[in-house]
Design brief:
The protein contains 4 helices and 9 strands; from the N terminus they run E-E-H-H-E-H-E-E-E-E-H-E-E. By secondary structure, the chain is α/β, with parallel strands linked by helices.
């Protein structure tokens, strides 16, 4: 089909605060052929990373991680905010622009030696994904690649991931 995914990502000025140009992916999500193509593009790219599992942070990472994992016939691992998973978890607290946040993953979600690809909707500063990488590595698994629907290259988030292959379907 080869749709230009950019045409389904709309700019919203001054959201969530003045001076920010927000990239809204909801038009892509509501368009069946565009969303399907997006999943196919991401699945094709991350298949080359050789994953046993796909892991993704909530919430928008789930929108891409779960269907890509299903497309590839491999498992999906949700990475959640603190207090959202019912069993014993590994956790990591990381810095935000103002304050901190904590991500968790079930202790048995990935096994030592497994190959994990991480997926999310956007690479901005890279803080959330860097925390996800650390969480997966803490379990003894290997992060073989990271994929994103879009990358905001001017924020230089990619610089946090030396040695890990990165794929972005769309770059701004």
């Amino acid at each position: 089909m080869n749709l230009d995914l950019r045409t389904f990502i709309h700019d919203v000025k001054d959201y969530p605060k003045p001076g920010i140009l927000f990239k809204d992916i909801t038009p892509l999500l509501r368009n069946g052929p565009a969303f399907s193509e997006c999943i196919e593009v991401l699945a094709t790219a991350v298949k080359a990373f050789g994953a046993d599992q796909i892991a993704a942070p909530e919430s928008r990472g789930f929108l891409f991680g779960a269907p890509v994992a299903a497309r590839l016939g491999i498992g999906f691992v949700p990475i959640r905010k603190k207090g959202k998973l019912p069993r014993k978890v590994r956790s990591i607290t990381y810095a935000l622009e103002y304050g901190t946040d904590t991500l968790t993953m079930h202790e048995d979600a990935v096994e030592p030696g497994q190959r994990v690809v991480l997926l999310d909707d956007v690479l901005a500063t890279g803080g959330t994904m860097a925390a996800c990488v650390a969480l997966v590595r803490e379990s003894g698994a290997e992060v073989t690649g990271i994929g994103f629907l879009m990358e905001l290259a001017f924020l230089h988030g990619r610089s946090k991931f030396d040695g890990i292959p990165i794929y972005s379907a769309v770059t701004y």
